[in-house]
Amino acid sequence: MRWLLAILTVMLLATQYRLWVGEGSLAEATRLKRQLAQQQEKNAALARENRQLLREVRSLKEGTEGVEAKARYDLGLIKEGETLFIFLDPEEGKE
Length: 95
Fold this sequence. Notes:
Layout: H1 2-20, H2 26-62, H3 64-75
């Protein structure tokens, strides 16, 4: 009878070890859920960025307004007869 009790105790401890510490434990499941949530957030941010880039590509393909706006913003394009005004913040240089 003692042997049976000892074997059952060892089996109980082995299953408890795996439940709390080993592979597939509650701690690992919690860590994996947290990691999954972080990855889903990253995926959502990348999906938003992809949609924005797709809109920009479509805008650039559809007409000259998109190309012109991009050139004005990124390259400082001005048309003939236009005057460029740059306003500087006087408080910005005093830091």
